[in-house]
């Protein structure tokens, strides 16, 4: 930064004269009469002050690690997760028995709800994509996508499926052929082969993508279109109102979302490790 950037321009006789010297007439060289003078020490002091302000503006200010964090949501989710991990270390066999019992009971009693909900998700997502709502951008009206459609599809396919499709695309039909879902068909039969392929297609085709899209659209539309926070509970603001979401109901939703995300990620890592 030079002195010319800090000192204001001075008034000269040339600026006060009318006309322009470009007409070819010679004129005496003007003299400069400064309006005021600035000492070199003042200039340096101003330079240091401006540089210090620039450094503060571009540097990240220290923040409290708990700033903006809901301590109730974090505390309950962390306590539940740590308790589950400790249970696994202390009594792994007991945890295995309880988990197996809970999984079997859920599949036996709510398997129909899972299949029905997945089908409704597919119908809803297809309707949104084919209707006028599918033309609403997930961002500002004047914004352009950061990546092309092909890049978005590639990234979503890689993150949504990953190596799981390579392993379970072959292993899952064989598994369900040998051990069909409960209360369906006898194993190692022609009907078992059909059931195995249907179950594998249910797990790896349009049904999981409809689930991903339902959550992704809700988060993206609320965040990038409506300017809401990226909390999971923010998706339900239009359904239950801001007062309910900012209260106990929103905290319960966020706690369940955190626990489900942590356990889902752990399950994915565990299944990925088994494929190595």
UniProtKB/TrEMBL annotation:
Residue spans crossing the bilayer: 72-90, 110-130, 151-170, 206-227, 248-274
Alphabetically ordered keywords of this record: Cell membrane, Membrane, Transmembrane, Transmembrane helix, Transport
Segments of this protein annotated with the region Disordered: 1-44
InterPro entries: BCCT_transptr
Organism of derivation: Actinomyces naeslundii (strain ATCC 12104 / DSM 43013 / CCUG 2238 / JCM 8349 / NCTC 10301 / Howell 279)
Keyword Transport appears in the UniProt entry: yes
The name this protein goes by in its record: BCCT family transporter domain protein
Pfam family, one: BCCT
Membrane topology of this protein: Multi-pass membrane protein
GO cellular component: plasma membrane
Superkingdom as given in the UniProt entry: Bacteria
């Amino acid at each position: 930064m030079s002195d010319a950037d800090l000192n204001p321009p001075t008034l000269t006789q040339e600026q006060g004269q009318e006309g322009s010297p470009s007409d070819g007439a010679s004129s005496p060289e003007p003299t400069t009469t400064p309006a005021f003078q600035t000492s070199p020490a003042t200039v340096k002091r101003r330079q240091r002050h401006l540089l210090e302000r620039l450094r503060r503006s571009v540097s990240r200010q220290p923040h409290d690690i708990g700033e903006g964090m809901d301590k109730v949501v974090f505390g309950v989710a962390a306590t539940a997760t740590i308790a589950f991990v400790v249970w696994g270390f202390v009594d792994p066999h007991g945890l295995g028995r309880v988990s197996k019992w809970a999984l079997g009971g859920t599949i036996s009693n709510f398997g129909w709800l899972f299949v029905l909900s997945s089908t409704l998700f597919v119908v809803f997502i297809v309707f949104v994509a084919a209707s006028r709502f599918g033309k609403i951008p997930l961002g500002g009206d004047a914004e352009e996508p950061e990546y092309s459609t092909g890049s978005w599809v590639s990234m979503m396919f890689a993150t949504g499926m990953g190596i799981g499709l390579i392993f379970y695309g072959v292993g899952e039909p064989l598994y369900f052929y040998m051990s069909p879902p409960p209360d369906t068909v006898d194993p190692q039969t022609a009907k078992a082969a059909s059931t195995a392929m249907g179950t594998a297609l249910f797990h790896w085709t349009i049904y999981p993508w409809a689930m991903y899209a339902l959550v992704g659209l809700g988060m993206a539309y609320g965040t990038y279109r409506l300017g809401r926070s990226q909390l999971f509970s923010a998706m339900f603001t239009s359904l239950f109102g801001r007062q309910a979401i900012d209260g106990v109901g929103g905290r319960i939703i966020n706690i369940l979302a955190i626990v489900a995300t942590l356990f889902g990620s752990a399950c994915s890592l565990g299944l990925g490790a088994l494929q190595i």
